[in-house]
Amino acid sequence: MIRSLFTVLFAISTLSINCLATAAEPLSDKSIFDDGYPEAPPQEQLTLRFERLGINKFRLDGVSNNTRVDFTNRLDKLGTKLMLNFSFTNSPALIERVSHIKVFFNEHLVTVLPIDNKLAVTGSKSQHNIELNAKLMKDFNQVRFELIGFYDLVCQDDFSKTIWAEIDKESAIEIEQQSLALESLLEYFPAPFYDERDNNQLTLPFIFASQPDETTLEAASSLASFFGGQAKWRKADFPVAINKIPTTHSVVFATNNDKPDFLLNYPDVEKPTIEIISSPTHRYAKVLLVLGKDTKQLKDAVIGLLFGHKVMTGRTAVIDEISKLPLRKAYDAPFWLRSDRAVTFDEFIEYPTQLQSQGFRGQPVNLDLRFAPDLFTWRENGIPITLNYRNTPVEKNLISRLNMLINGKFIDGFVLDDDGGKTITTNTFLPLLSDINPNQTRQDFELTGLDLTMKNQLTYDFNFSVAKSGACNAIPAGGEFGAIDGSSSIDVSAFNHYMALPNLHAFANSGFPFTKFADLHQTVLIMEPNSSVEGIRLLLNFTGHLGAITGYPSHRLAIKFPAQDINFDDKDIIIIGKPDSLHHDMSKDSALSVLINDNNRVVNQAIYNGAFNTSDPERVQVNIRSMGKLGIISGFQSPFDSERSVVSLIATNNAAYPLLNEALLINEQTAKITGSSAIINSQGIKTIKTDEQYFVGHVPIHTLIWFHFSDRPVLLAVLSIITLLLISFLLWRLLMLLTQKRLSEGENK
User: Fold this and answer.
1) 303 sits in which H/E element
2) How far is Cα 193 from Cα 223, in angstroms, rounded to an integer?
3) pLDDT of 440 strictly over 50
């Protein structure tokens, strides 16, 4: 759920931002960075294959005779030539002179392709290279194919299986494009650094003047989490460079006393400042400058940008003041289903017709759902849902259905009303996949249901029946509509929060337990000092990953280098680094020493899967140093608080950081991270599940007892008998006291 209106009002009410247009800029001369493009614009050629673009279907028939392929065009690109390299195979039963395929580009008819039965008989493909008019390109584009198929001029049945054409999956759109000379304006933000028109993975370099300190890393990680939230399913990668000249769209952090070489003559600033310029050497590349007198102002500049960019204009924005931002509440991440009340479907939609389906085989209604992963669902039928839907009248004596699916798997179905028009209300449940009990495995549950630790897709598919009329024709399909009413709702407010940890599946896919508070104000991250650029890149990719999960920047994440005085009380902890770099001279009983020793023990257990186990940190350290390229993700209970957690992302050397980065950026890799530890090498991911589990959250005491003794029936029976005997004894004593009181009152009379 994206509370966009709340975000805008919140930004305006909490920030005072002075936005200065370039023409009115009072700062010193910056003419060397003025937009100027004496060189020819860079050219590039893209090949967009249909399969990669996610075409909705490749097979056309007499009823479902349309399909489309969608593609986008970035704000900073201009398409100069557009080619459709397209091939298809058709049914040999189609009549040549009347059967054909229409091709549309943005609903402009481009060409009509005749059916060639000679090719169909031999099984050959009909290939076509069609030039599309590049002047018709928009931000969001569509190529649509429509089959007009006839197998008989007298007795035609659109439902006949002899009417079909199959589009080749290797078909592609080739685009020649050049870079555009965009103005350096904050109105475009987050474009061109992130462009919603681009469906590819976001790659955005972050450039620092020198080795960043803790505050600079906090500023950078906050900005990375914002871009991760914008990129969502696209994923976001943030390569890191030190004192380099930007060659692509990039972000640069600089203070008055610490600037990269290409900004040495850039004017100093007095307040936190955000500015957009062109790269001095690659002037079609835009540079987002985060500027401040010191590193604290860098962080203020980032926070000003995150919460105030919608009201920023011109090239420069100076943040005069930032009012105190309120702390986020538990489980209130914008992308998560609210836990405090029922949530209507209207709160999920991203475009106006999302809840509507049109046609005999129309596009299904899809909704993305992300739940708090620690919902306590033990012995529950599922997540309750109140469904309201309506449809056009359907044929009597024929059954038309509305099917409900979760993640593409059928879970329920409803017969459509033949009166049509009126809203039908039904109550049902979304079944669950759950790992809440550590003694149960995934095999104990049916594989159809919600996985609370991941993003789920809820689908409603309207299927209309059509009556046959005669031997060789049917009532033509058309005019069928189905709609899920926006007042439909999902309600998880009655569920408690309780979960067994460590659970790296929940960590990798939902960032839990750190994302319990979307701004991460109860999390501290320990990172090695003087990290390599790959280590910093892992930090930024990790916070970008969390932003994609919550939809909110992690601007309150505290980043600390190893030190004697770090306070871990009431904090969840993340560790990023190499094992040997986290050791510093400090007392053995210091909090950090305890944390690092516990981490080494868990990492060692993961590496050797329990075959080698010692609490001697020196021996553990020697063994880890001898390892090759290896990434280890481990979770364990915080030594400082029984309800707090620690997760470490450890690389045995700098060359191992990409293994951890790939685990976050590649969905197939992320899905394999489970258990309490994950070992990542060049051959894949191996997971380990230990018995050292603990629980976080709260449930009523009677439920807690039943839950933890549910897999020990004998012990539960003994406990029940003891409880009954204790209650009986207390009742007996109470009755005895009452009897004695009555007797004593009778004697007194």
Assistant:
1) helix 295-308
2) 12
3) no
What is the Cα–Cα distance from 433 to 452, expressed in whole angstroms? 7
Question: How many other C-beta atoms lie within 10 A of the C-beta of residue 472?
Answer: 12
Determine contact, residues 317/20, Cβ cutoff 8 Å.
yes
Distance CA 167, CA 147 (A): 11
> What pLDDT digit, counting tens, does each position of 534-583 carry?
999 999 999 999 999 999 999 999 999 988 778 898 999 999 998 777 76
Query: Distance (Å, rounded) from C-alpha 52 to C-alpha 46?
Result: 12
Which class for 280: exposed (0-12), middle (13-18), buried (19 or more C-beta within 10 A)? middle
Strand 206-208 relative to strand 164-167: parallel, antiparallel, unpaired?
unpaired
For residue 192, cis peptide bond before it (omega within 30 degrees of 0): yes
Residue 251 has pLDDT above 50, yes or no: yes
Q: What element of type H or E holds 116?
A: none
Q: Decide: 492 and 339 in contact? Cβ < 8 Å.
A: yes
pLDDT of residue 358: 87
Distances (CA, A) of 318 to 259, 270, 281, 292: 18, 9, 26, 10
Average pLDDT over residues 514-521: 96
What six digits make up the tokens of 276?
């957009």
Question: 491 Cβ partners below 8 Å, 6+ apart?
Answer: 341, 342, 343, 383, 384, 385, 386
**What is the enclosing helix (H) or strand (E) of 622?**
helix 617-625
For residue 541, give both structure tokens: 């990719």
Question: Residue 616 pLDDT > 50, yes or no?
Answer: no
Contacts with 518 (C-beta within 8 Å, 6 or more apart), sequence order: 328, 332, 333, 334, 550, 551, 552, 554
3-state secondary structure of 591: helix
- Sort strands 206-208 and 250-255 into parallel, antiparallel or unpaired: parallel
This prediction has a pTM of 0.86
Q: Which residues contact 112 (CB under 8 A, 6 or more apart)?
A: 100, 101, 102, 103
How many CB atoms sit inside 10 A of residue 701's CB? Answer: 8
C-alpha span between 565 and 575 (Å, rounded): 16
Tell me how far apart the alpha carbons of residues 372 and 515 are, in angstroms, rounded to a whole number: 9
Q: How long a stretch of residues is the chain?
A: 749
pLDDT (tens digit, 9 = 90+) per residue, 31-58?
A: 555 555 567 788 889 999 998 887 878 9
Q: What are residue 558's DSSP bridge partners?
A: 524
Class of residue 2 by CB neighbours under 10 A (exposed 0-12, middle 13-18, buried 19+): middle
Question: Based on the number of CB atoms within 10 Å of its own CB, is 155 exposed (0-12), middle (13-18) or buried (19 or more)?
Answer: exposed
| Proportion of the chain above pLDDT 90, given as a percent | 56
Between 193-202, 219-228, 420-429, the lowest mean confidence (pLDDT) is in 420-429
Taking the C-alpha atoms of residue 408 and residue 403, their distance in angstroms, rounded to an integer, is 11
Q: Are 375 and 492 in contact (CB under 8 A)?
A: yes
**Looking at residue 664, what DSSP letter applies?**
H
| 290 Cβ contact partners less than 8 Å away, ≥ 6 residues apart | 219, 223, 251, 252, 253, 254, 274, 298, 301, 302, 305
Task: Judge whether residue 700 has pLDDT over 50.
Answer: yes
Amino acid letter, residue 227: F
- Which residue's entry shows tokens 């709702």? 489
Say if residues 687 and 435 touch (Cβ distance below 8 Å): no
What is the bridge-based pairing of β-strands 206-208 and 140-148?
Answer: unpaired
Cα 187 from chain centre: 26
Can you tell me whether residue 662 is helix, strand or coil?
Answer: helix
Sign, CA dihedral 412-417-421-422, equals negative
